[in-house]
Amino acid sequence: MKLTVNGTEHEIDVEPEMPLLWVLRDVLGLTGTKYGCGIAQCGACTVHVDGVAVQSCQVAVGDVAGAVTTIEGLGTPQAPHPVQAAWIEHQVAQCGYCQSGQIMTAAALLAETPTPDDRQIDDAFWGNLCRCGTYPRIRAAVSAAARKLQEG
Amino acid sequence: MGKGAMIARRAFLMGSVTVAGGFAVGWYSLNQPYAFPLADELPRGITPLTAYVLIDAGGVTLITPRAEMGQGATSIQAALLAEELDVPWDEIRTDPGPPAPAYFNATIIGEGMPFAATDTRWRAEAMRGLGATMGKLMGFQITGGSSTVPDAYDRLRLAGAAARQMLVSAAAARLGLPEDQLTTREGAVIAPDGTALPYTTLAPHARRVPRPRKVTPKDPADWRLLGKPMQRLDIAAKSTGTARFGIDETAPGMVHATVRTNPRRGGGVNGFDAGAAEAMRGVLKIVPVPGGAGVIADNTWRAMQAAAAIRFDWAPSPYPATTDGLFDSIAAAFVHDARDSRLRDDGEVDKTLERGADVSAEYRVPFLAHAPLEPMTALAWLTSRGLEIRAATQIPRFAVKTAARLTGLPEDRIVLRALPMGGSFGRRLEDDYIAQAVELARAMPGRPVKLTWTREEDMTHDFPRPAAIARGRGRVEDGRVTALDLSISSPSVSASQLGRLGLNPMGADTSIVNGAWDQPLAIPHYRVTGYRAPETVPVSSWRSVGASGNAFFHECLLDELIYAAGADPLEERLRLCTHAPSRAVLEAVGEMSNWGRPLPSGAGRGLAFCLSFGVPCAEVVEVSQTPRGLRIDRAFAAADVGRVLDPVNIENQMQGGVIWGLGHAMRAELTYADGRPEQENFDTYPAMRITECPEIKVRALETGDTVRGIGEPTVPPAAPALANAIFAATGQRVREMPLTREVTFA
Ligand code: FES
Ligand code: FES
């Protein structure tokens, strides 16, 4: 079966019911996407499918029709996406384990809602747990990234 | 350690970096007796080993042996070294180094001693010194107890300064100039004419310079890095998915594994049927492990699927099978024979309370899982030389000992590389998952096996924070609190946890009463008694340990008494408080929260204070009633850390601690049925989500005279501040956590 991830098409031989999360991590070696719960409770596994944020532990790889973007495809340490730049600037991460998912949620939110209010930010991140408690910094970084993206 | 082993470890440390011409300041000392002539520089007889600085042609590598769990340990250790060494922040490389006795923790043992942090009398100081010596003799390398910064503060600055001194001496010899004409800047020694001699070229000469007898760290007024906001060294990696956690580790030829063991901890397994699992796609091997079995497969998901298909016949739990049974055993320990400590006994409590108690109440806190977002993982494989382990751990030397016991290999044939963790909160003070990875690796010699737990395995095989019950009484007279008597019964964390490490703790377990007995209050008749309940579920240290529950007991009881006296919670606490830095945090949080200014009807403000890990911390929480339930609107925290080394990290840690404390207080508990936890994942063990997170303002004060760690101390006051706010808003006293047992949150 074919799977397009970060602009590259891959031919993979796995069961169609295998969750996208584990295909990314174990088959394609893209370990930026994390496993936290496997039951749609934590958001650590969030990726984009055709620009929409989805929890990759909940998507069977056989059901993926669109192009997948992971944290690795969003930006790099040398060329970070504006959301990643805001995350660096605000030093959001503590352990950092949830942050790939948080950042993918943020990027999808801002693509859809360029100037979210506080309520919209909170609602968008409901599904992304952070055990370290970086929520105040996440709010600040999303608002800053929104301003940056508006300024262009 | 033989010479060969040392070189092997060095080569391993340096990875692909050229070692030629490299030198390690004090690295040799790992092979030598610890004695090192800097002893007079350090408090409490700690001997520094400058085993922290490696220089090669490529630059400087700083050894940061305390584990990175998200608390910023790597960056702060590097900053303490880099400040003294004068190397540019953005060129620093770090390495956790090998597990080694030289990286003993001299601070953490003192924390378990029966002396309040505010006690600076000679006996307390002497005992802490003994704790430091014990830590050293045992090579007690451990990350925890908010001890990283206090333990590293002098030691790493001196280590950095000593390395700098050796480089200056080498430069002086080469230039034929006196040392005092030379300065250092940006990784180089600078001559009076401006010539820069890079450390990288000086290093081979510096290795022949005798170690300095005396070094003086910089005056804090001259700091370039410390005390200012710094960019965490791992921040770009953690913002781009390129940080590699334990779960991301790979090795050539690696296979994947998971385990399922009896969630009735210690119950063992009578047998299992893996017939269906064996036939599943990708399954390579089913391996019996203590209490259950592991599945090795060609990817993690297939291993997890197959493990789920194994049918186990598990034995019953060796402890009471239900929550009620477990609490009964705690309640039954309020008897003379189970009395463990009475570290606070001021005035005449019994006589005073004979005249009548104004408050008499019982409080309870539940078992709680650590549940870091990254589940337990470890990678291990047998090589022709011995065993390789790559794992996130707070106790690397104990893990090596465990692996040696399991494999029969000598410890110097076991190489453990410590990896960054996706959170820990105390969970990785256990090495159970590393032992399992070693067992699996033994079943496939030569093959790297990476073990990854499911969330369900993780939640049901935590070593939880123990449940506890407290009984409190008190008396008020003339508008003042005059008597407070608190009895706490709980299983012993130190007996359970240290027992698993093969250590036998003697004497009272102060964690049963920490955060309650050691508070700087002058209540005239004041007593705190600890009772040791029998060990049931294996328990361990959970972020802020005993204080996590004891502050709830102490501060809710005190709040009830203050209301009974008709006094103001802030004013009465200030009146009772005997410790200047503690008064300062109370005053600060009062000012930050506009204490005393009226709130809209239906809203309420609660205050709590706790001195834990040497850090006084006061918090105010504001709640309001909404049609959908209670809402936490704002939280304020003030804490005294003695000296702020990185204001950004402190803010992040303080906010995180408040969220941790509030989130668990609201909804989290492990309950037991049929001998096993009933919660398996974050749907039934809810953590605080962003939608519930209040606005949180924090302030770090520097009135105290000792530098302290802030990873834990903001946790204990959060729950009682919330419960006290709920009382202020609703008139209802909630004496049991999680608070959702009695109130509804929006
Ligand atoms: S791992 Fe997918 S939501 Fe938690
Ligand atoms: S930063 Fe650790 S879980 Fe979010």
Automatic annotation (TrEMBL), chain A:
TM segment ranges: none
Annotated ranges, domain 2Fe-2S ferredoxin-type: 1-74
Keyword terms of this UniProt record: 2Fe-2S, Iron, Iron-sulfur, Metal-binding, Oxidoreductase
InterPro entries per record: 2Fe-2S-bd, 2Fe-2S-bd_dom_sf, 2Fe-2S_ferredoxin-like_sf, 2Fe-2S_ferredoxin-type, 2Fe2S_fd_BS, Beta-grasp_dom_sf, Diverse_Oxidoreductases
Origin superkingdom: Bacteria
Pfam families (UniProt xref): Fer2, Fer2_2
GO MF term (any one): metal ion binding
The keyword Transport is annotated on this UniProt entry: no
PROSITE patterns from the UniProt entry: 2FE2S_FER_1, 2FE2S_FER_2
Protein name (database record): Isoquinoline 1-oxidoreductase alpha subunit
Species this chain originates from: Rhodovulum bhavnagarense
Organism ancestry: Bacteria, Pseudomonadati, Pseudomonadota, Alphaproteobacteria, Rhodobacterales
TrEMBL record, chain B:
One family name in Pfam for this protein: MoCoBD_2
Domain Aldehyde oxidase/xanthine dehydrogenase a/b hammerhead: 240-318
GO molecular function: oxidoreductase activity
Transmembrane regions: 12-30
Protein's UniProt keywords contain Transmembrane: yes
Domain of life of the organism encoding this protein: Bacteria
Keyword Membrane in record: yes
Keywords: Membrane, Transmembrane, Transmembrane helix
UniProt-listed InterPro entries: Ald_Oxase/Xan_DH_a/b, AldOxase/xan_DH_MoCoBD1, AldOxase/xan_DH_MoCoBD2, AldOxase/xan_DH_Mopterin-bd_sf, N-heterocyclic_Hydroxylase, OxRdtase_Mopterin-bd_su_IorB
Protein name: Isoquinoline 1-oxidoreductase beta subunit
